[in-house]
Amino acid sequence: MEPELQELLIRIGLSRYAPVFEEEAITDIALLKSIGSSGFVDAMSDLALDEYAAEALRAALFGPAASASSDEDELKLEVNEDAHDEDDGLVLEENAPAAPPPDLAAPVAPTPPPSSGNPAAGA
Fold it and tell me: For a Cys staple, 54 with which of 4, 11, 22, 44, CB 3.0–4.6 Å?
């Protein structure tokens, strides 16, 4: 384990989790930061860290202002400043009604019952 991660765990009182990180090959701070703030607590619970320990580590890595529900890693929609509100040259068209599917439930002519092979049975 890199000294920086070891020192961080000691500083925030989580040195007891050092063997867990070593066992999972989490040896440096960059790897922990790559998990991202928003899913960090859940990811740490997979490593058997309790919620408070995971939250303390997340705050140490990403700052106290970042919360577990932070949208820092989430995608966001942005307004396209170049978009024209009125005439963009696009035309909406209505689709033609779809043809009905072939009728698979059409009646089928009944088949005659099998003969028993006895000519007297018909009499």
Answer: 44
54 touches 9 (CB < 8 A): no
Look at residues 63, 83, 81 and name the one whose alpha carbon lies nearest to residue 72: 63
26-41 pLDDT, tens digit per residue, is: 889 999 998 888 888 8
Rg, C-alpha atoms of the chain: 34
Nearest-angstrom CA–CA distance, 108 and 32: 67
Q: Which two tokens stand for residue 42?
A: 């859940």
* Cα–Cα dist 29/40, whole Å: 13
d(CA 88, CA 90): 6
Q: Phi and psi of 118, rounded to 5°?
A: -100, 110
Nearest to 60 by CA among 20, 18, 5, 19: 5
Q: pLDDT tens digit string along 51-100?
A: 999 999 999 998 877 654 444 455 566 666 665 556 566 677 777 777 77
- Alpha helices by DSSP H, the chain: 3-11, 18-23, 29-33, 40-45, 51-62
